[in-house]
């Protein structure tokens, strides 16, 4: 496990000796002093980020833990493939609540609701549960339909977004019967979702290699960025000056931008315009190296600029063939007086079974060109 400092270009903390099995989930506390890590064995560890020492260890799950969320500085919530949710009090090293068999399939996402003791839990059984740590039973259940990959709660405490399959759905926490809004937003399954800019933007990543920014008012794409690999996860710092993207090949990309002093959200309503290509196509990003360098990087004096390769012009007879103008294609080759080319064209027309069609369309003068070619080459065995 590696922790990256947004002010540095290299990872600031590397923790690799505390885990006996693969790390399947992490959650960094708001003050960055603690990080929780879930393992494939089902164990959950709370680690001091400065001393790199484990503070708490919990062995209550029997299967991999894929969802972790700090509900507050004291409370930690975990979701596992054993279909249960556990609530831990880190300060007292105790288990506050256990929700066993909460879902009928794996639990893969958790999202805390701000300033409350509630948390949203998404499962592969296609449902989202609303839990209150003071209540032993779920308060509500929302049916997304497809296996839920991620959930993201609005900061106002009244709405949330669930993503699963190719769809994103906006829900009102006070009404679990039907979503407020839904849309198909990707070509392949969505992997993660995050809310930003006071809930005005929804960022989603998907296995089709896209990272998109949606307007939560209508779920329309405002910006997007394309990768050659499926996007597995992403996150950004609170100032939106950096975005980190994890790809399926194991690479982790970080994009930075310099924020101008004195520019606030009122003056700059869309902080992501410097990161992503606009949906109208005004910026084209070609590969991950271009992404790392920056979309707005300009060539320097020492930069070697490679010109674009010139495309070979299509010959006139090829253009006629593409348009099925067989008469013009034949006349074009006859006018060029290249014997091999004329024979190739005749052979092509025979293969397409359209030689008779081309000859019927010729007038007397054009037919004379064909007869002249035959008369000149009739005695040559190479053309018989």
In terms of topology, how is this protein built?
Blueprint: E1 2-4, E2 11-14, E3 23-28, E4 34-39, E5 44-48, E6 53-58, E7 65-70, E8 75-80, E9 85-89, E10 94-99, E11 107-112, E12 118-123, E13 127-132, E14 140-143, E15 148-153, E16 159-164, E17 167-172, E18 181-184, E19 190-196, E20 201-206, E21 210-215, E22 220-226, E23 231-236, E24 242-247, E25 252-256, E26 277-278, H1 288-293, H2 316-322, H3 326-336, H4 339-351, H5 355-360, H6 364-377
Antiparallel strand pairs: 1-2, 3-4, 4-5, 5-6, 7-8, 8-9, 9-10, 11-12, 12-13, 13-14, 15-16, 16-17, 17-18, 19-20, 20-21, 21-22, 22-26, 23-24, 24-25
Helix pairs in contact: 2-3, 3-4
Explain what this protein looks like in three dimensions.
- This protein has about 375 residues and is of the alpha+beta class.
- The chain has six helices and 26 strands.
- It folds into two domains: about 1-295, Methylamine Dehydrogenase, Chain H, CATH 2.130.10.10; about 315-384, no CATH class.
- The protein has helices at about 290-295, 315-320, 325-335, 340-350, 355-360, 365-375; strands at about 1-5, 10-15, 25-30, 35-40, 45-50, 55-60, 65-70, 75-80, 85-90, 95-100, 105-110, 120-125, 125-130, 140-145, 150-155, 160-165, 165-170, 180-185, 190-195, 200-205, 210-215, 220-225, 230-235, 240-245, 250-255, 275-280.
- Strands 19-20-21-22-26 form a five-stranded antiparallel beta sheet, with no helix packed on it. The chain has a four-stranded antiparallel beta sheet with strand order 3-4-5-6, with no helix packed on it.
- Strand 17 and strand 18 (about 180-185) form a beta hairpin.
- Helix 2 packs antiparallel against helix 3 and helix 3 runs antiparallel to helix 4 (about 340-350).
